[in-house]
Design goal:
The complex is a heterotrimer.
Chain A lengths: L4 E4 L12 E7 L3 E7 L2 H13 L1 H5 L3 H16 L4 H14 L3 H12 L4 H11 L10 E2 L5 E6 L2 E5 L9 H9 L3 E5 L7 H12 L7 E4 L6 H10 L2 E5 L2 H10 L5 E5 L3 E6 L9 H13 L9 E7 L6 H18 L7 H20 L4 E4 L6 E5 L14 E7 L6 H7 L3 E7 L2 H14 L3 E4 L22 E6 L1 H10 L5
Parallel strand pairs in A: 1-3, 6-7, 6-9, 7-8, 9-10, 11-12, 11-16, 12-15, 14-15, 16-17
Antiparallel strand pairs in A: 2-3, 4-5, 5-18, 13-14
Helix pairs in contact in A: 1-9, 3-8, 4-5, 11-12
Chain B lengths: L8 E4 L5 H12 L3 E6 L3 H12 L5 E6 L5 H14 L5 E4 L20 H11 L1 H14 L5 E6 L12 H21 L4 E8 L13 H9 L9 H12 L10 E4 L7
Parallel strand pairs in B: 1-2, 1-4, 2-3, 4-5, 5-6, 6-7
Chain C lengths: L2 H15 L5 H18 L1 H9 L16 E2 L2 H4 L12 E4 L10 E4 L3 H16 L6 E5 L10 H13 L5 E2 L1 E2 L2 E2 L1 H14 L3 E6 H13 L11 E5 L11 H12 L6 E5 L8 E3 L9 E2 L4 E6 L13 E7 L8 E11 L2 E7 L12 H7 L5
Parallel strand pairs in C: 1-15, 4-5, 4-8, 8-9, 9-10
Antiparallel strand pairs in C: 2-3, 6-7, 10-11, 11-12, 13-14, 14-15, 15-16
The chains are: A alpha/beta, B alpha/beta, C alpha/beta.
Chain lengths: 484, 258, 362
């Protein structure tokens, strides 16, 4: 048997001299990932260090940061780069996702952070990105500056590989130093990126730390949340709620909790020629990362049409999932996940005991399941992740209202396959119901650069806008020595 | 023999004798539960059913239905739904009763077009009706299979049974079209193309001179047996052919080899 | 009840009282009952057909499709017209507003099943014993299978009047104390039966009163149901230690019963010497431990989702898919309790979180 590999991950600022512990994460008998682990003392030291060194990143221009990030991304996109190979080798082991899904997913995700895309991030949040460099004339008189929050704290989830990069790069772009806690489920990628970035731009080498601490360690958490200027927390509602309770009221808190996403397929996308492509896209959203991302659909609404019945659409989607399973196998589920799925299937079967028009398609090994339901009013739990989905028919857009209203607080992405003529009507409707991101079917798991995650400003959340008002300028003139 | 088809429910049409009967027995040996469709010969169908039930894991159940009668097909499918709740495969083997009489077969200029139309109606229409009715069961799961039994006379009309050969040609075209349509729905459709099979009911009266004519041109130097055809059908039903659809397998000892 | 049902019932009664059953005997009766349920119960037939399981394809008792227990809440699982049911037992409505209903044509089979196995597992050497019950009597809980069970037990095996100490929310400690003392005075063995959480409350009470008992030799204690709403969780070891200490009954004579409204037969532990103790069912019951998705048996000794096959469920469904997990041990099995559904790692919703997030009660 091959020897077990030990890899030291995470990132500690280059000049940090303090002592810290380490923790080993074991992935089967193949890999041990060693990460810096903070306790009460080391977290205070590290936070103090980051705060003290914030000036370094603060003095760097955004252009320089973009250049460094872009270089790092290009390295990770290079299939021959040792760290890219490392990521590709170990991410499947760590996350259990199919190698192909990792390879393709990683590439298309990393491409979101190339230089031209980073400019899009900036423009999405700032009309004039130069506000990040200093005071700029405001539209209503006076001046305005985007002042970085000195230290941002990120608590990342491990559901999707490299997910942490989004907030890590966002904070970096606006010159905020970061302390990030990786998830035990995917502790590799962000640390790897941080390490490479620090090498590429020495001025950033003391601007962040990628570490681990045990969730629930009261003293450590209180120290970190107490000293951070922003806390961004990703995870299920329970986790996020626990963190929220420990964040001081004076600290900005960015909760990214439970979400529900959905797809809508109009009749126009289901004609004899287009249906294959449409369902391939629908399945792609389900298959990539096994619906573990908040942007993955759990229910697909299909418009009733003359060409094809709901049952036929469901059956064809099921077959598409079966083919995709052969191409991109689903990851191994835990006993708990399997049981959840069994219970969901059981619930569908019970529904069918009473109603003829519902139909369930299930793979032999339970690798996917599609539940077709005609009656939107009876839509219960739409899916239980890991490639399970409800397909529900509707006649008019309004029929979705009841369901969406019930889910309003947790709605996020809608993947649409609708014609231009209806696109804006749908978008207005969905926006009104609480959806914060609308994309094309098949693109749900790949938000575009500048995405307003859960409707928030990705970059803006890590800065504080400073207004230099006209009155100050005016009075300045009054006191100016050069005034006549 | 094997568990290749264990727990699978497969309908074989025209299964009371000849290729159909042999196929039914073969599938049961490999664990399938075979629905033995027949037209009239109850005794013989019962016999096939018994043979199927003698196997270790397989089973048989015979059900009469005239495949040229849409209502009868409907009733049969309903019965299958009730009795089994599932259908994993179909072997479409039913042929209308064509009199294979090489010596006295009519010249095409003596055949009224209605005869051609009738042949197609009897050869292709039953498959169309059957597939429409069973599609829900077939698409309920992954990898359902349909095997159509045709004739090598389509490719090489060594004896020109005009209406029959043209009908079978339409059947093959139908199968290939369905293969493309149903592929995305998880159903594979393939065709087994036997040469002259002897002895069967259809060839029992075939004159020696005709047999010799065929035999002389067959590289493997004999006529096909029903078992030969059943083996090919088994292949298309088995997981060994899971990436094959729209294909034809010629079981004719190389007669049509070009 | 039609003729087939009558015939099944008769056969079942004979089956239950016979000492044991061979695999073939079990199979034959299981398939006969299944066939009747398939024919008479439309929702169940639909359920089976959807799975491709019919009279022809179900060849052994293991092939009989197991119904998720939640189905009792949402559909009618009964061969007879539910309006004609002689008894309806309902699941408790603690976590959901909808209560599952289990219809019984009458309670003859249920009672026979209860008595036969109760005698073997609880009464053992005794024909009768003085009893006390920490549970409301049947008149106060008309749809509780447990109340009925205890009532049947008291009637069949109790000596004199059996007291039921729970009235509404209150426990009648006075009568309980008096009964315990009387048993000690008479030096007659005593059987105290009760819900686990009630026994826990009683122990708290006696501890506060600094009162302990030394029940006469042959006495035994019986608990069922787990802690549920009891304020303080304790380990099983702590529970049985305290139980043994409070009443002066060795742990080897503390018996745990596991029952479900959806079943007509119960499982028992033989002792609580070691916990978790193996649970045992009678010969008209089978238990399987399956992989949740493939439905195949897990290798012996490994953890699986529990499926019950209870022939005494002749009117509803004999095969039940639970949400509990357990593993085979000795000739019985260890029950590990409800399968904890998985928590999603990130921000997408898993089944359980979904329920919480939308505040759904079903």
């Amino acid at each position: 048997m091959a020897e077990k590999t030990l890899y030291s991950g995470g990132y500690i600022p280059k000049d940090f001299q303090g002592h810290y512990e380490e923790i080993d994460f074991d992935f089967g008998d193949k890999l041990t990932l060693r990460l810096p682990r903070l306790n009460k003392e080391s977290s205070r030291e590290l936070m103090t260090f980051l705060k003290a060194r914030h000036g370094q990143i603060q003095n760097l221009s955004v252009a320089k940061i973009i250049e460094a990030v872009d270089k790092t991304i290009k390295q990770l996109l290079d299939k021959e780069h040792p760290l890219r190979r490392l990521a590709q080798q170990w991410l499947p082991v760590i996350t259990g996702y199919d190698e192909e899904v990792i390879r393709l997913g990683l590439t298309r995700y990393l491409k979101r952070f190339e230089a031209h895309q980073l400019h899009r991030f900036l423009s999405a949040d700032f009309a004039d990105p130069a506000v990040l460099e200093g005071f700029r004339p405001g539209v209503s008189g006076g001046y305005v500056k985007a002042q970085a929050m000195p230290v941002s704290c990120h608590i990342w989830a491990g559901n999707v590989p490299a997910l942490g990069l989004w907030s890590f790069i966002s904070a970096c772009l606006v010159k905020s130093s970061s302390i990030g806690k990786v998830s035990a489920a995917e502790p590799l990628m962000t640390g790897l990126f941080a390490r490479l970035l620090a090498e590429n731009e020495p001025a950033l080498a003391n601007a962040f730390a990628v570490v681990y601490w045990q969730g629930g360690e009261e003293e450590t958490e209180k120290t970190i949340y107490g000293m951070a200027d922003v806390v961004a927390a990703y995870g299920n509602n329970e986790t996020v709620e626990k963190i929220r309770q420990k964040v001081p009221i004076t600290t900005r808190f960015l909760p990214y909790g439970h979400k529900l996403s959905l797809s809508v397929i109009a009749g126009e996308a289901l004609d004899h020629v287009k249906i294959g492509d449409t369902l391939r896209r629908a399945a792609k959203d389900i298959v990539f990362y096994d619906q573990q991302g908040c942007y993955s659909p759990q229910v697909i609404f299909v418009e009733e049409n003359d060409a094809i019945s709901l049952r036929e659409v469901g059956s064809m989607l099921a077959q598409q999932l079966a083919r995709d399973e052969k191409r991109y196998g689903r990851r191994q589920l835990s006993f708990g996940e399997e049981s959840s799925q069994r219970q969901w299937i059981g619930q569908c079967e019970i529904e069918m005991m009473e109603r003829d028009e519902s139909e369930l398609f299930v793979s032999r090994e339970g690798a996917w399941a599609v539940f077709c339901q005609k009656d939107i009013g009876r839509l219960g739990v739409p899916g239980t992740l890991n490639r399970t989905i409800s397909v529900v028919s509707f006649k008019n857009i309004e029929e979705l209202s009841d369901f969406l209203q019930k889910m309003r607080k947790i709605l996020q992405t809608a993947g649409l396959a609708v014609p231009t003529e209806k696109l804006f009507a749908w978008s207005e409707f969905l926006a009104n119901e609480g959806i914060s991101r609308i994309c094309g079917l098949g693109e749900m798991t790949l938000p575009q650069a500048g995405w307003h995650h859960d409707g928030r400003h990705s970059l803006m959340d890590f800065v504080q806008m400073v207004d230099l008002e006209y009155s100050a300028e005016q009075q300045g003139v009054l006191y100016s020595t050069t005034t006549d | 023999m094997t568990d290749l088809l264990k727990d699978q429910v497969i309908l074989v049409t025209g299964a009371s004798s000849g290729i159909g009967a042999e196929t039914a027995r073969q599938l049961a040996k490999h664990g399938a539960f075979v629905i033995i469709n027949y037209l009239k010969n109850h005794e013989q169908a019962k016999k096939v059913e018994e043979d199927c039930n003698q196997t270790t894991h397989g089973g048989g159940w015979c059900i009469a239905a005239d495949m040229t009668d849409a209502a009868a097909i409907g009733q049969m499918v309903e019965d299958i739904q009730l009795e089994f709740g599932r259908l994993d495969g179909i072997v479409f083997n039913a042929a209308f009763s064509y009199k294979f009489d090489a010596q006295n077969r009519p010249y095409p200029w003596h055949i009224n077009w209605d005869e051609y139309a009738k042949a197609q109606k009897q050869i292709v229409a039953p498959l169309h009706a059957l597939l429409n009715l069973t599609l829900e069961m077939l698409t309920k799961k992954e990898d359902s299979r349909v095997v159509v039994v045709s004739s090598n006379l389509v490719k090489r009309p060594i004896v020109t049974y005009h209406t029959y050969n043209v009908g079978k040609a339409a059947l093959e075209a139908y199968g290939r079209n369905m293969a493309n349509e149903l592929g995305r729905m998880g159903v594979r459709v393939n065709t087994v193309v036997p040469g002259m099979v002897y002895p069967t009911k259809a060839t029992a009266d075939t004159k020696e001179e005709t047999k010799e004519l065929v035999l002389a041109q067959t590289p493997l130097g004999r006529l096909a047996k029903a078992e030969d055809v059943a083996d090919a059908v088994l292949f298309f039903l088995s997981p060994y052919s899971s990436f094959l659809t729209g294909q034809s397998l010629y079981v004719d000892g190389g007669l049509t080899n070009q | 009840m039609n003729q087939e049902m009558e015939s099944i019932k008769k056969e079942l009664a004979t089956f239950i009282v016979q000492q044991t059953a061979t695999e073939e005997e079990y199979e034959r009766l299981a398939l006969k009952i299944f066939a009747n349920q398939f024919r008479c119960n439309q929702p169940y037939r639909r359920f089976c057909q959807q799975k491709g399981k019919t009279l022809r394809t179900v060849k052994t008792w293991r092939d009989i499709p197991a119904v998720p227990i939640n189905a009792f809440k949402e559909t009618t699982l009964s061969c007879i017209d539910p309006a004609e049911a002689g008894a309806v037992f309902m699941t408790s409505g603690t976590t959901t507003s909808v209560r599952g209903k289990h219809y019984h044509p009458d309670t003859e089979i249920y009672d026979l099943s209860m008595k036969t196995f109760f005698k073997q597992m609880v009464m053992q050497e005794f024909e009768h014993i003085k009893m006390g019950v920490l549970f409301p009597d049947e008149s106060h809980m008309p749809n509780s299978s447990l109340a009925h069970y205890l009532e049947v037990g008291a009637k069949a095996f109790g000596i004199g009047k059996t007291n039921f100490y729970i009235k509404g929310e209150d426990i009648d400690y006075e009568t309980l104390t008096a009964d315990l003392k009387a048993a000690m005075a008479a030096d007659e063995p005593f059987l105290l039966l009760g819900a686990t959480y009630s026994l826990a409350r009683v122990m708290d009470y006696f501890e506060e009163k600094k009162e302990k008992f030394a029940l006469p030799k042959g006495s035994r204690l019986f608990d069922t149901g787990g802690f549920k709403s009891y304020k303080q969780q304790m380990t099983l070891d702590e529970f049985y230690d305290r139980l043994s200490e409070t009443f002066g009954v060795p742990r080897g004579r503390c018996i745990n019963m596991y029952g479900m409204t959806e079943l007509s037969t119960e499982y028992y532990s033989k002792s609580s010497q070691e916990v978790p103790a193996a649970m045992y069912g009678p010969h008209w019951m089978r238990t399987r431990f399956i992989d949740p998705l493939s439905g195949e048996d897990v290798p012996k000794g490994e953890c699986g989702v529990i499926v019950h096959y209870d022939l005494a469920n002749y009117n509803s469904v004999i095969a039940l898919l639970t949400e509990d997990m357990g593993y085979e041990k000795e000739d019985g099995f260890v029950l590990l309790g409800r399968v904890e559904g998985s928590e999603a790692k990130g921000c997408s919703l898993s089944l359980e979180e979904f329920m919480k997030a939308v505040g759904s009660d079903g």
